[in-house]
Amino acid sequence: MLKILKPWRPARCLYQIIFQHSARWKNSSSKNTFLYPNNSQYIDELYHSWLKNPKSVVLSWDHYFQSMTADDHSAFGNVTSTSTKSFEDQSTYVNHQSSSCCVPDVDATIRAYQARGHLIANTDPLGIQNPESANLQGTSNLAPAVVVRDHLKGMTDADMDKEFPLGSLTVIGGEKKQLPLREIIMRLNNVYTGHIGLEYTYIPDLEVLDWLRNKFEIPGAWELSADHRKSIWMNLMKAVTFESYLAKKYGSEKRFGLEGCESFVPAIVQCFETSSELGVEAFVIGQAHRGRLNTLVNICAKPMYQLFVQFNPLSIEGFGSGDVKYHLGTHSETLLERTGKTIRVAMLGNPSHLEAVAPLVVGRVRAEQVAHGDSKGDKSMAVIVHGDAAYAGQGVCYETMHLTNLPDYTTGGVIHAVINNQIGFTTDPRYSRSSAHCTDVARVVNAPIFHVHADDPDLVAYCAKTAAEYRQKYKNDVILDIVGYRRNGHNEMDEPMLTQPLMYKRIKSHPNVLTIYSERLIKDGVIDEAFIKQETDKYLDHCDSEHKKAQSISVMQMKDWHDVPWTEFFANQSPKNKIPSTGIDKSLIDKICTAFSTKPEGIEPHGQVFRVLERRKKLMSQQQADWAMGEALAISSLLKEGHHVRLSGQDSERGTFSHRIHIIHDQNTDKTWKNMLNNIFPDQALYTVTNSPLSEYGVLGFELGYSAYDHNTLTIWEAQFGDFANNCQVVIDSFLCSGQSKWGRQVGLVLLLPHGMEGQGPEHSSARLERFLQLCDDDLTQIPCEGSSDNFDDIMTQQLFEINWIICNLTTPANIFHALRRQIIMPFRKPLVIMTPKSLLRHPMAQSNLSEFETGTTFQPIYQDPTTTPNTIKKVLFCSGKVYYDILEVRKERNLENDIAIVRIEQICPFPYHLIAKDFSRFSNVKVMWLQEEHKNQGAYHYVRDRLSMALCLPLEEITYGGRPVSAAPATGSKVINKEEKQEMIEMAMKID
Fold it and tell me: According to the model, what pLDDT value does residue 788 have?
């Protein structure tokens, strides 16, 4: 009698079998049937067709129906009888059978191991995690219920020796299509609960699933040759010996050593070896402090003596303050030993803010790929090294992961390596994350995750090799979680027993990985004691030689630590190099304006676009330009000159206030648009303008990394509102304003931060100008270049050369044009932060004559008051930004043009002392007021007050304040209060007596 041993399980068939073979089912009716798992009539017909002829259905259905039926002689044998019951009736019949009818559900058990085996894998060298899993390898003992659940309920000893078909969901049998249950469980234990925990079953691509299964399930897949294992030993020996050498020579110094996870070094070397064989030529590494020194020397091939110099109390040769040794970067070419390939390796400078460097790495790689036409990411690759606690705890990891598959941000996959020492500073993992693993964030991009035992270097190397192959084949992220421990405390001066006493008792008695691996290779006959001594002594001799060389060096060279190639552009910089005019030829102005005002062919724009284009044409006929035209003239002219321009932000294609409209979308056809600035000139450079994901921290980091690669590229990040910069303050503080000082990294990144008290509430008003000014490193003790030159252009050039970044609050389209072009035309690079206006983007007074863009014109740090009667002026208002237009109108209404002069300071930092002093010399016996729309404790007041005093040779008390009172919030949320505050500010400004 035919027995149906289990009810219909639609989830398994639909999602794991049917879709595997969906390509065979071409007609839509068949596909639609699959969407309805309760369509018992279809299943019944298919089943009866199979009963008559098993070959009438696809192989997966054949396997399934075999596993669902049995006769009296075989639990999973061929069906020899038929039944007149419908499939639905038979399922009902099953539900009434006694438990004695149950047999092991082998398919479900295999799937359980594949999906959940990682939860109990024996990946912890200390045996603290999942201690019971150590008893599973090499046995047929069943995994705990958290993995297998009830799938083998009712299993008997007799079942263990029965053979079961393996089906299409596993390849643990290799060539064998069925195995005894005992052997099945043993092989599953070895693959899924041993020294590796695999996470991949959530990946929707069946080809990827099959590929990964073949890499890990096929017997013998993990085996490495003797030469390969010897190479792994060599890299491991260098990693372990280097740490012990540092401990011996610099025992009282913080080193944030790699001890306990030294297998990381052969892992990354393996990634490089495999990737280089597959065509990768350049690698960019981002890493926090843990293991950084070891990585610099044994992976990046940093000359060891340069690192030892960092331990010596030496002065620095070059511009900047430098940084501690475990924050520094490098850039080098190195020859890989096994493949003989020469590769480029960069390690980005990174402060202790853990994962902050992650988006910079992918931005840096993306820039290199674009520059070399590497559209698929075949030649350049990012490697991001995480700490376990930081990977789970730092939000930028999530933001960076989400860039993986976005068209204008993807790098073709990132290899993420986790130095997992099972502790975060002093916090136990049980109290530092809610997820099962520190790597769970990677699931958002369906990245496979390999958790691997750090004391099993063979398996670590194999997983690294597979990770590199996967990245190159499928162009997606992949995670290598190397689970080890931290032999010392958070740093070498720390006492870990205070917080983790039991863990560190176990660590003290635990041999290091080199000892473990050496014994294993000796036992296997791969190496012997003589080889170990010879190679170790040779490496130690090299360490001694480099250490001796370091003692002869008296000055540390900053250029030795640059993380980008030190080109002639940077090497020959001097404050005496003049900044050329940023204006352009009138014919170019006309051509760009015409193109920017004309509807592209082959597209149907929104009606508002037509109105914008008409407005542009009208302005052009009047020889005027608005803000959008100023931007377009700057960008397009740079494109013509061969400079790649990239503009990114959450609303950058059209501009947050719809003033820009560089991308015109077709109103009738999806995914159809035109870039207004592309193809204006033949052979112009690439212009990328893209709406970014809703991420500031990650995206700004990406754009900063992008801008660091090529000094000839203009990279712009635009916040939707200025206060959005609050979310990426780590990048601003740790990398942007201080990058040159700490690491000698010059970048020309531009930040556009919409700013202005427009009555839109606290969080959409202020870009926190005061914060950026506080981070400026100009000296207030004396006027720069005083007495050294009478040429104001030379003085400003020297100020720009010496400052850490440039802060502007602009009011005219001409100045945004010149400011953007100056970023590229300057003979050096500085970040530029612009308080971008909002209402001025369309303000009828915020326009510039086209003559202000022509050859010979340049950026204006200040705009003088055009008064022709300076002797009648009783009060001089200094201001910056939108407030100028507010008071200009009122001054005119009250006929005070001959009484009050208004001077706009467009570039606040570096402060234009000499230009202000020269302009102020026109007036005599006047009152001086600094006017701002921001509150008194915010904005530029506290920065400019002392500088105005120095420039004007006036006591501080004579520099009065005009504006809103102090406030904790950047603006009011009440329109009534906003209007009252603005009126009070205007009255203060217009008051003469």
Answer: 64
Q: Both 903 and 945 in a single domain? A: yes
Closest-CA residue to 180 (of 73, 60, 64, 75): 75
The phi and psi torsions of 150 (rounded to 5 degrees) equal: -110, 20
Q: What is the pTM of this model?
A: 0.88
- Write the CB contacts of 732 (distance below 8 Å, at least 6 apart in sequence): 700, 725, 772, 775
Q: Rounded CA gap, 409 and 504, in Å? A: 43
| Cα–chain center distance at 401 | 7
Which tokens hold the place of 490? 């958070």
Q: Are residues 384 and 503 in the same domain?
A: yes
Closest by alpha carbon to 708, among 406, 288, 417, 349? 349
Tokens of 878: 């200094």
C-alpha–C-alpha distance, residues 405 and 424, integer Å:
30
| Spatial distance between the Cα atoms of 979 and 985, rounded to a whole number of angstroms | 10
Average pLDDT over residues 243-247: 93
Confidence of residue 641 (pLDDT cuts 50, 70, 90): very high
Q: What is the pLDDT of residues 418-438, one digit of tens each?
A: 999 998 888 888 888 899 999
Domain count, the chain: 5
Whether 28 shows a pLDDT value over 70: the answer reads no
Same domain as 129, residue 95: no
In angstroms, the CA 909 to CA 931 distance is 17
CA contacts within 13 A on the Cβ side of 226: 8
CA gap 130, 121 in Å, rounded: 7
Residues 6+ apart with CB under 8 A from 7: 91, 94, 95
Residue 684 lies in a domain: yes
DSSP element (H, E) containing 467: helix 457-474
Using CA atoms, how far residue 799 sits from 360, 786, 794, 878, 912, in Å, is 28, 11, 9, 21, 9
Mean pLDDT of 17-33: 37
In this structure, are residues 913 and 784 in contact, taking their beta carbons and an 8 Å threshold? yes
Give me the domain span that covers residue 418. Answer: 236-556
Q: Is 759 helix (H, G, I), strand (E, B) or coil?
A: coil
CA distance 533 to 483: 28
Q: Confirm if 638 and 647 have CB atoms less than 8 A apart.
A: no
Residue 669 burial by CB count (10 A; 0-12/13-18/19+): exposed, middle or buried?
Answer: exposed
Exposure on the CB side of residue 837, measured as CA atoms within 13 A: 29
User: Which element (helix H / strand E) includes 501?
Assistant: helix 501-508
Question: Does residue 544 surpass a pLDDT of 50?
Answer: yes
| Rg for the chain, CA atoms, rounded | 34
Which of 12-16, 92-96, 962-966 has maximum average pLDDT? 962-966
pLDDT band at 780 (very low <50, low <70, confident <90, very high): confident
Residue 834 — φ and ψ, nearest 5°? -115, 125
Three-state SS annotation for 633-675: HHHHHHHHCCCCEEEEECCCCCCCCCCCCCEEECCCCCCCEEE
- In sequence order, the 6+-apart residues with CB closer than 8 A to the CB of 459 are 195, 196, 222, 452, 453
Tell me the mean pLDDT in the region 196-216.
96
Contacts 24+ apart (CB under 8 A), 62-65: 63/165, 63/167, 63/168, 64/12, 64/13, 64/17, 64/167
Omega before residue 910 within 30° of 0, cis: yes
The pLDDT value recorded for residue 60 is: 65
Query: By CB neighbour count within 10 A (0-12 exposed, 13-18 middle, 19+ buried), where does 517 fall?
Result: buried
Contacting residues for 323 by C-beta, under 8 A, at least 6 apart? 349, 351, 742, 743
Q: Which of 101, 121, 154 is the last residue of a domain?
A: 101
Going by pLDDT thresholds of 50, 70 and 90, the confidence category of residue 130 is confident
Least confident of 120-134, 455-469, 957-971: 120-134
CA dist., res. 214 & res. 211, Å (int):
5
Of 198, 228, 254, the one marking the end of a domain is 198
